[in-house]
# Entry
Amino acid sequence: MIGYVTLGTNQLDEAAKFYDELFATIGASRTFETERFIAWSTGPKATGMSVTKPFNGESATVGNGVMVAIAMHASEEVDAFHAKALELGATDEGAPGVRFENFYAGYFRDLDGNKLNAFCFTKD
# Structure
């Protein structure tokens, strides 16, 4: 359904380092890169995420109510991904835990303030 997600950044070098290290924990790496844009995914035909300096030359801003959700297979992966994000300088927006029924998630903001979460379903 969603092909990829792009977040704006005002600090491309710092964002690149943050996401290189964070996404390496789930087997994702850079798949495309220019001087103002970097994309990561787990394979050449896999969906992914990218960061960019805004093409209009304005400062990147955080979208109120916008969030990127990264799918995991198990709650332990959610815990590890959330912890790694915080270790890399992200801010906690909600520790990993059950949010409702079988939905387990941990929330954080990246270095630019973009909100992300790692989540999994704990039952089929």
In short: The two ends are 20 Å apart (CA to CA).
